[in-house]
Amino acid sequence: MKRGIIILAAAxxxxxxxxxxxxxxxxMTYKIxxxxxxxxxxxxxxxxxxxxxxxxxxxxxxSTLVNTYDNERPAFFPISKSMFKGDMVxxxxxxxxxxxxxxxxxxxxxxxxxxxPKPVGTKDNYATFTVKIEKVLHKIANEADSTxxxxxxxxxxxxxxxxxAKNKASEDAKIKKYIADNSLKTTASASGLxxxxxxxxxxxxxxxxxxxxxxxxxxxxxxxxxGKINVFDTSNSKTAKEAGIFSPMAxxxxxxxxxxxxxxxxxxxxxxxxxxxxxxxxxxxxxxxxENGGGPINxxxxxxxxxxxxxxxxGSAVTQLPPPTMAPAPATK
Length: 333
Description:
Number of helices: 7
Number of strands: 14
Helix content: 10-25%
Distance between the termini: 25 Å
Structural class: alpha+beta
Low-confidence stretches: 1-18
Strand content: 25-35%
Radius of gyration: 23 Å
Order of helices and strands: HEEEEHEHEHEHEEEEHEHEE
Shape: elongated
Largest sheet: 7 strands, antiparallel
């Protein structure tokens, strides 16, 4: 895995600008880094891959839009008919299982045929994709669509179960590594929450029925490929922009949240401080998204939150609260 990340990162950090790229269909150019010589991907196949999508911006240099390594979740890609000459389907057809390559695709064409707007502030008219083909499920000639659909479901379920098992087995090690790498002197609660109180705040404590005003940043324990913290949600606009998850529709200020509707780990962390308090919590999955995950969060994924409690609005003691869920909700791009 680490070797794959190094290869892909090297490609995105400058190899895409070299003169060794070959001309493909339409406006596509490409460079193949590794070829295993296996059967090439064809229309109808189903592909598991890891990849990084980068655009070059006018103001901030390279901007990573997608990185499956950061989320520790590979993509599954059905190979349909090409939408235009030199699209991603045409690019992937140059590869087989185990191969890796970088492609530059035309952004105007991608926007026209996908219905998604072109990213704002791009320096040129190309997106760079660096991919590693992990596995290919080939559709056999004259195979019934229903038969292949069943194979695809079984293939995906098998791969997803393997991901879950891997995450479950590695969760404790991820927590320990994060604490060690950041030289944290945490306290462990009886529930398994690890925390560091940075400021205690006042003596007031929030009850489950209260609405708390919190500033927070949620991140994964692993760093991103560029070495930055791996943020998935935040109430801070600067942090959101730096993490590449800024949304003009989001509220970047202290957010009002009914405490009893949050995850057990988040609830416990907030109740350890008063107004004006700050705390860092490391939440094991059993106190967060659990064995099912949610949004960009995989099953059995530990999370880290930096929380500042700005205020408490008292609620009614008779208010009927739903079962706790993980909130605040993860940001999506």
